[in-house]
Design a protein that fits this description.
heterodimer, A: 113 residues, mainly beta, 6-stranded mixed β-sheet, 5-stranded antiparallel β-sheet, 11 strands, B: 116 residues, 7-stranded mixed β-sheet, 4-stranded antiparallel β-sheet, 53% strand, globular
Chain lengths: 113, 116
């Protein structure tokens, strides 16, 4: 089946540093999404990308939909302690049901003040 | 606006016991889902529903059953719990789309289940 390879698995960074994580797949997706999960909470959508090559920002977050439609990356600039959590990428194909949303295994971000 | 509410939040079961997790959403969403989250495994889809009275299997459906008798509720049942079902379970809901899924799922806060 379809799989998403998300990297890195975990990151330990200093407050103020920039963060970059990515997701790759051997399959093509029509939609890429990035979710964040705070400790003890459910995931929350950060950014949705619907078009190959699309670059979208949400505050300090920037995400891009790869031209090949097989990858996406998320950047966080000037990290702060509240950025701590697990970041998930997810890919979705049209034509199927919503059950075709595939999640990566997550990137756990720790920020040292 | 409560969003997606899961009950119970925590539960400890003995092997072989049964239980039901309840998910309720007040956003009038068509689609609802049950995921399990295990360390290093991400979110894996158990079952989902595209409307009242309909259910479908996800990636890891074995050992679970679901029902969607009312649009706002989606129940996840474990008939005979096993230690391998120890996990954090998340319910989610979303709008439907006739032409394309948007992918924006609204998640509950999770239910932590331990099977001894």
């Amino acid at each position: 089946g379809q799989q998403l390879n998300q990297s890195p698995q975990s990151m330990f960074i200093q407050e103020g540093e920039d963060v970059s994580m990515n997701c790759t797949s051997s399959s093509i997706f029509n939609t890429w999404l990035w979710y964040k999960q705070d400790p003890g909470e459910g995931p929350v959508l950060l950014i949705a990308l619907y078009k190959a090559g699309e670059l979208t920002s949400n505050g300090r977050l920037t995400a891009q939909f790869g031209i090949t439609r097989k990858d996406s990356f998320l950047n966080i600039s000037a990290s702060i302690p509240s950025d701590v959590g697990i970041y998930f990428c997810a890919g979705l194909n049209y034509g199927g049901s919503q059950g075709n949303l595939i999640f990566g295994k997550g990137t756990k971000l720790s920020v040292k003040p | 606006n409560a969003g997606v509410t899961q009950t119970p939040k925590f539960r400890v079961l003995k092997t072989g016991q049964s239980m039901t997790l309840l998910c309720a959403q007040d956003m009038n969403h068509e689609y609802m889902y049950w995921y399990r989250q295990d360390p290093g495994m991400g979110l894996r889809l158990i079952h989902y529903s595209v409307g009242e009275g309909t259910t479908a299997k996800g990636e890891v459906p074995d050992g679970y059953n679901v029902s969607r008798l009312k649009k706002q509720n989606f129940l996840l049942g474990l008939e005979s719990a096993a230690p391998s079902q120890t996990s954090v379970y998340f319910c989610a809901s979303s709008y439907s789309s006739r032409t394309a899924g948007t992918g924006e799922l609204f998640f509950g806060e999770g239910s932590r289940l331990t099977v001894l």
